[in-house]
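Reopening this one. Same input as before:
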Amino acid sequence: MFGFSDETYLDIASGSGGNGCVSFRREKYVPKGGPDGGDGGRGGDVVFVVKNNLRTLSHLKQVRAYKAENGRNGMGARCFGRDGKDVEIPVPPGTVIKDAKTGEIIKDLTGCDRFVFLKGGRGGQGNYHFKTATRQTPRFAQPGEKGVEMRIGVELLVIADIGFVGFPNAGKSSLLNNLTNARTKVAGYPFTTKIPQLGMFRYDSNDMVLADIPGIIEGASHGAGMGFKFLRHISRTAALAFFIDLSDESYLTAYPTLLDELGSYAPSLLEKPRVIIGTKIDEEGSEDRLKELQKAIGEYEVLPLSNITGEGLQKVKEQFILITHLDESKSRSDDGFSTVVDTGAEYRETL
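Same output, byte for byte:
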C-alpha cells in the first residue's frame, strides 16, 4: 500500500524518428528500376492522461523514467517504417507539470483528459523522394529527427470547492466526516490528519468537494509542522473555511495567525471567499467565547458548531452553498463577507 505522494520528478523522452532508406529497385525484366527507399516511421509521443480514479502520484514513485518508442527505419520497395508507440503517463486531476530546474509551471492539466507533452521526432524521407531528372540515382536519404529528452517535476494540487484550514484538533476532520462519506481519523492529539482528505458534500441539488488540509501551526509558511508541505493544496480551492477551536486558550489569536500564515505563503489566498466557524460550542464557556470572537472579527459572521451534538450544522451547510456561489470580484459585507485584507487589519487592531 503506497502512501500519499503529491510531487515527484520524472525523466521523459519522446521517440526518435526512423531513418529514410537508400534502396534501388532490383527486379528481373525491370532495368534501371530507380530509387525506391521508403520513409522512416514517426517517433512516439509522451502523453499525460488524466485519470479520475487516481488520487495521488504514488505510482510515479516506482517508475521514474518514461521513453516513447523510436520509429522504425524505412525499407526498400517504398516500404515505410512503423511509427513508434506513444508512452502514456497516468496522473490524477489537479496535476501540474513544472520545469525541474526553475520550478516554472509548464502545463496545468486541469480540464484536460489527454495532453501530448513531447512530440516524437519525424521520420526521415527515403531516397525515392530525392530523384530528379538530373539526379536519377540519389544515394542518400534523410535521417530521422531526434526525440526530446527532459527532466520535469510533477506536482499534484488538490482540487476542491472549499478548503478547511485551522490549527490541529480544531474539528476539521470531524466536520468532513459529518458532511461527506469520508472517514478520516479523529483523535484527541495533534496532526491526526497527515495528508489532505477529500469528501463529496451533497445538499439538495448542489454537489461540492470539501478538502481537509492537515493542521496549520504558527510558522507553517516557513516549514514548521506539516503546514508548509500541504499549504499549496489550498491554492486550488474556490473558498476557505476557517476553524477556530472555542475551547482553546488561543481562540482570539488563532484567526490572525492563520491569516498571517496563508498570506506569507501566497497573498492570493487572502482574496478567496471564506466562512469562519467556531467549533466545540458544546464545551463549557464556549458561548461567551463565541461572542468575544464575533466582536473581534467584526463584519464576518462566526458560525457556532458542535460536531458532537450537531448544533449549527445546518447553518454551516447553507453557508457552504452560499459561499461557493459568491462573486469573488465583489465585496459581500451585507451577507457577512467582505474583503479579507481590511477585515484582517481591523481584527488585529481589536486584539
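So the earlier flakiness isn't reproducible anymore. For the record, Confidence is low (pLDDT under 50) at residues 185-194, 327-351.
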